[in-house]
Design brief:
The chain is an alpha/beta fold. It contains six helices and eight strands, in the order βαβαβαβαβαβαββ. Helix content is about 40%, strand content about 15%.
Length: about 240
């Protein structure tokens, strides 16, 4: 009996962690939908992965725009493409403390880091539940943990990642008992990306490890958790 190949969709994937996650999922024989806001950069990134042998397509997606998310969902549905693995990786990292943050800065951060993950989850999680299989990974941060970093976080970023952790718990609670759909959050650590900077202590490959692990969990794996390096960490 042939095994149906899964399809993964990764947001914010034209560079850094998102691009490496796409590469690794393609190596694991998943079909990959690489998404990004910039059409040229996204198409170039997908082309490089295809040249390396990956089954990767590019789709324009601005997670901060609900209409963009809905449009992508309709395009994929029109092609009978079912998203089995969703990696909510897109994120922004504004600086500044809580007493100086403006409403505009907070709104822009929440639209990408929280609302975007909510909208993509609303678009694709119901299909996973209906089909009885899926993996949803929210890329969070230790800065979103009350126990290990929130009090040191740039305000808008920390607020958005704490909220993303709460969203993860709520999404996981919608999965019926016995359904092989696993929803989790992951802290990749401090990674040497454009966001993390050259002084970060982890390579992109190391940062992607935990994301890919959750995106490819076997049946019976954990759900509704927050992980770093494959181990649960406190919310």
């Amino acid at each position: 009996m042939s095994v149906t190949r899964r399809t993964a969709l990764v947001t914010g994937a034209n560079r850094g962690l998102g691009l490496e996650v796409c590469r690794r999922l393609a190596l694991a024989d998943l079909r990959v939908v690489l998404t990004a806001r910039d059409p040229a950069l996204g198409a170039q990134a997908a082309s490089r992965l295809r040249d390396a042998g990956g089954d990767v397509r590019f789709e324009v997606l601005d997670v901060a725009d609900e209409a963009s998310v809905r449009s992508l969902a309709r395009r994929l549905e029109g092609e009978s493409v079912s998203v089995d693995v969703l990696v909510n990786n897109a994120g922004v990292y504004p600086q500044g403390g809580v007493l100086g943050i403006t409403a505009k800065e907070l709104d822009e951060t929440l639209r990408v880091n929280l609302h975007g993950a909510l909208w993509t989850s609303q678009a694709f999680l119901p299909g996973m539940i209906e089909r009885g299989w899926g993996r949803l990974v929210n890329v969070s941060s230790g800065y979103g943990s009350f126990a290990s970093g929130l009090d040191h976080a740039p305000a808008a970023y920390g607020l958005s990642k704490a909220a993303l952790n709460a969203l993860t718990v709520l999404l996981a609670s919608t999965v019926p008992a016995g359904c092989d759909v696993l929803v989790n959050a992951v802290s990749p650590g401090w990674v040497r990306t454009r966001m993390g900077g050259a002084g970060a202590d982890r390579s992109v490959e190391e940062g992607a490890d935990g994301i890919v692990r959750l995106a490819t969990l076997p049946s019976g794996g954990p759900g509704g958790g927050f992980f770093r390096d494959g181990r649960p960490i406190p919310w």
